[in-house]
Specification:
two-stranded antiparallel sheet; five-stranded mixed sheet; 3 helices; alpha/beta
């Protein structure tokens, strides 16, 4: 917006501008960004869906020196929620075993994982000088006797 102001009686007008910022477009953009982030934030949370086998076992002990290895159905291995690159599992476990010799490893493997792959993972754990290994299962509804 511009206003014209006349000076004196000469008839000349000097253009002056109004020094205000129009914030309505800025508010519109911020609302669109807010809505976009509100919709996309829940979609960005990624997790691995693991279907545990069922068995009548005791509850998982609450010990400070423990590691939980999650193995998904597509053989993706996570250590305490952090993805492990292929071929680095033993190195990471050996480093942890040196720092904490009494550390325990609990394996949460999807029930669709082949027995051979699970045996290889447990073998890697044992080779890294960790002797306390357990398998995590879901409680079984019926008696579960074999």
């Amino acid at each position: 917006m511009s206003f014209h102001q006349t000076s004196g009686g000469i008839g000349r007008s000097l253009p002056t501008t109004l020094a205000e910022i129009n914030v309505v477009p800025l508010i519109d953009i911020m609302l669109v960004l807010l809505i976009t982030f509100m919709i996309s934030a829940p979609l960005m949370q990624q997790g691995t869906q693991i279907e545990l086998p069922k068995a009548n076992t005791g509850a998982l002990p609450d010990i400070a020196d423990q590691i939980v290895l999650e193995i998904s159905s597509n053989r993706l291995i996570k250590m305490n929620g952090v993805e492990i690159k292929k071929g680095t599992l033993r190195d990471k476990l050996e480093a942890l075993a040196q720092v904490k010799p009494e550390i325990q490893v609990f394996v949460k493997a999807d029930k669709k994982i082949e027995y051979g792959f699970l045996a290889k993972v447990i073998s890697e754990i044992k080779k890294s000088k960790i002797n306390r290994v357990g398998l995590v299962t879901l409680p079984e509804v019926n008696d579960g006797k074999l």
